[in-house]
């Protein structure tokens, strides 16, 4: 049998490669398209703001969730949780210890779910709330440095038209010389929230509550969020504010 020369095999491979290349279409050089003048975007009319800000704004095809039936938009709520009297800022700057936090409806529902079975009424009240904000200040051995600023806090709620319903002084309990003031926020004849301010010689606690509540609901909130167990001062007998 006659053996093929290695040169012949190489020539055969080269010929097959040339034949395969000849069958491929010739590529034309890329031509850059002529540049078109940039079009100015059409001026769009400004979008109207959403009537409420509950949940996240829609993104793409994601629909905005519907708010609960008793949800009140923050900009329309008579109890803005983020607002505090200006005098509180000056007192906060002089406090040795300061703590502030806000709980929205979702966190309040979680807190209500963690309450023991024996506190069913307290759980019911928590589920009615839209939000709670708490500001706690502790001062040094000299106590609250400016009682006039504390008086300015009380005056600020009076100026806003919130109704003062409780002034309770406890001089024999676990926390001596404690004064508690309670204001309710009225929307017509409905209570839309409340403010509780508890003052001791060395501490000041301010709690703002948003939600549709009644006088008895306020009593069930005692012992929660830093609200002291003040005397009811006739709240149980109240039918009208």
Quick take:
By secondary structure, this protein is α+β, with helices and mostly antiparallel strands. The chain has six helices and six strands.
Structure description:
This protein has about 240 residues and is an alpha+beta fold. The protein contains six helices and six strands, in the order ααβααβαββββα. A six-stranded antiparallel β-sheet has the order 1-2-6-5-4-3. It starts with 5 loop residues before the first helix and ends in a 21-residue tail after the last helix. The model is unreliable at about 1-25, about 50-60 and about 65-75 (pLDDT under 50). It is globular, with a radius of gyration of 36 Å.
The overall pLDDT, averaged over residues, is 74
- State the major sheet: 6 strands, antiparallel
- The total beta strand count reads 6
Rough outline: globular
- The Cα radius of gyration reads 36 Å
Question: What kind of assembly state do the chains in view correspond to?
Answer: single chain
β-strand percent reads: 15-25%
> Strand order across the biggest sheet?
1-2-6-5-4-3
Give the proportion of residues in helices. Answer: 25-40%
Q: What distance separates the N and C termini?
A: 120 Å
Order of helices and strands: HHEHHEHEEEEH
How many helical elements?
6
Find the structural class using helix and strand composition: alpha+beta
Low-confidence stretches: 1-24, 48-59, 67-76
């Amino acid at each position: 049998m006659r053996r093929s020369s290695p040169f012949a095999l190489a020539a055969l491979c080269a010929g097959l490669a040339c034949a395969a290349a000849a069958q491929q279409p010739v590529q034309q050089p890329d031509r850059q398209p002529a540049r078109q003048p940039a079009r100015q975007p059409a001026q769009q009319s400004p979008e109207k703001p959403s009537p409420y800000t509950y949940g996240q704004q829609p993104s793409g095809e994601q629909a905005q969730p519907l708010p609960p039936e008793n949800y009140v938009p923050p900009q329309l709520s008579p109890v803005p949780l983020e607002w505090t009297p200006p005098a509180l800022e000056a007192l906060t700057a002089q406090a040795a210890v300061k703590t502030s936090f806000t709980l929205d409806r979702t966190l309040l529902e979680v807190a209500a779910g963690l309450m023991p079975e024996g506190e069913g009424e307290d759980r019911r009240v928590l589920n009615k709330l839209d939000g709670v904000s708490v500001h706690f200040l502790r001062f040094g051995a000299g106590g609250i440095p400016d009682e006039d600023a504390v008086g300015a806090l009380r005056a600020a709620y009076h100026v806003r038209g919130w109704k003062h319903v409780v002034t309770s002084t406890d001089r024999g309990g676990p926390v001596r010389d404690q004064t508690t003031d309670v204001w309710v926020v009225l929307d017509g004849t409905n209570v839309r929230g409340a403010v509780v301010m508890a003052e001791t010689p060395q501490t000041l606690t301010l709690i703002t509550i948003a939600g549709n509540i009644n006088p008895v609901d306020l009593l069930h909130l005692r012992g929660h969020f830093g609200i002291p167990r003040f005397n009811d001062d006739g709240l149980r007998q109240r039918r009208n504010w």
